[in-house]
Amino acid sequence: MGVSGIPGASGNTAEATLEAAASAPRRTLNSLLWAVLIPVVSTAAGFLAQYPYGLWAGVVIALGATAAAAIVAGGMWNRAGAATLASFATLALALFGGPTLYETYVKTFGERVDALVADTGQRVNAKGTKLDVCRVVDTTGRAQDVSEQQNCHGQFKPEQHVILFNDPLGGLDPWVEATGDRTLDPVGPACTGGLFALTGGALFYAGQRRRTDRDMALRQRRGYGAPHRSEP
Question: What is the pLDDT of residue 123?
């Protein structure tokens, strides 16, 4: 017998269709909210980590955003594949997006100050890793050490003229360049934009194709069959 022969089947189907149509806008809005919120928080966490005393706070927030992506897409929406992709993309976005925002901000709005490289060398961090460091002296006579985070990667020589891009608000350490050119390296923004789109896209897909716990139970029943009661 077809579905039409079951009393009330057509009515239940129509009711389910109307309910799905009514919930579609809410589902889209909810999916879009998470698809924007988590990448924004991850990027902001990466930027916060660029501040001298913001590293650990940025790391905690980035890990929280990564966990939120996994919980929302995997735990709430039952999309394991999208959850895995969104989690890795969220963490990568914090790692790449923060330094890119830092460079973009200070090179766009920073005050350019002439400086001279007094010395170059390396320091060893707590993990035993050797990191490049440059000691520069600006026109006021102030000497300061510039790390790899500030674009010192061993490319400068002692007594070389460089330009410091100072944060106008004074919160971030200066960025060093060989010239005063404010042009940005396109690789950083491109990678950041791609990771932002990947994170948001994975979350939006998971939200639009979300499965309820009932859907998962029905899927399991179709795969393994209904449970059998043991005979007395």
Answer: 87
In terms of Cβ atoms closer than 10 Å to its own Cβ (0-12, 13-18, 19+), residue 79 is buried
Taking phi first (over 0 means left), then psi (-120 to 50 degrees means alpha), and beta for anything else, what does residue 5 get? alpha
Kindly state whether residue 2 falls inside one of the protein's structural domains: no
Residues of the chain with pLDDT under 50: 1-9, 11-14, 16, 230-232
Pair (201, 143) in one structural domain: no
Torsion of CA 17, 19, 23, 24, to 10 degrees: 10
Same domain, 120 and 85: no
Asked whether 151 and 157 are in contact (CB, 8 A), the reply is: no
CA distance 163 to 116: 8
Assess if residue 229 is contained within a domain.
Answer: no
Rg (CA), the chain: 27
User: Residue 3 gets which letter from DSSP?
Assistant: G
Helix (H) or strand (E) holding 64: helix 55-70
**Residue 134 backbone phi and psi in degrees, to 5:** -125, 135
Cα–Cα distance, 136 to 146 (Å, whole number):
7
Residue type, 37: L
Residue 138 CA from chain centroid, whole number: 35
Domain that residue 53 falls in: 18-105+186-224
pTM score of the predicted model: 0.79
Q: How many domains, in total, are found in the chain?
A: 2
Q: What is residue 124's predicted lDDT score, i.e. its pLDDT?
A: 85
